[in-house]
Specification:
Strands 1-2 form a two-stranded antiparallel sheet. Helix 3 crosses helix 4. Helix content is 41%, strand content 12%. By secondary structure, it is of the alpha+beta class. It has four helices and two strands. It starts with 11 loop residues before the first strand and ends in a 6-residue tail after the last helix. The longest helix has 16 residues.
């Protein structure tokens, strides 16, 4: 197999916030999207999130939280409540951490 055969365009993948207390607070499960492949620098920044200030970490996460058309949810002065950002960060980390090469 050639390495170039594994290079594909990133796809949007849906993640759903299902944490019971957040569903109760906001009235429903909340969907957002993330690309299944990220540039290496994004992985590096996420891997070092525990060493970054919370603002830096949330900045990285805000770049990854997308709508169903691939647009950033947090734009201009709009931002999500902290509890949703933290849960989204957890889901994104879990999702990207489980990405595996095709067999």
């Amino acid at each position: 197999m050639k390495l170039k055969d594994l290079a594909t365009k990133p796809k949007l993948e849906k993640l759903t916030i299902q944490k019971p207390e957040l569903v109760e607070k906001y009235g429903d499960e909340l969907d957002f999207y993330v690309y299944d492949r990220q540039p290496l620098d994004v992985y590096g920044r996420l891997a070092n999130a525990d060493k970054m200030e919370m603002g830096e970490t949330m900045e990285v996460v805000s770049e990854l939280i997308l709508d169903d058309e691939g647009n950033k949810v947090c734009q201009d002065e709009n931002t999500l409540p902290l509890d949703l950002q933290v849960e989204a960060m957890t889901l994104i980390g879990n999702f990207l951490g489980k990405q595996q090469a095709p067999q």
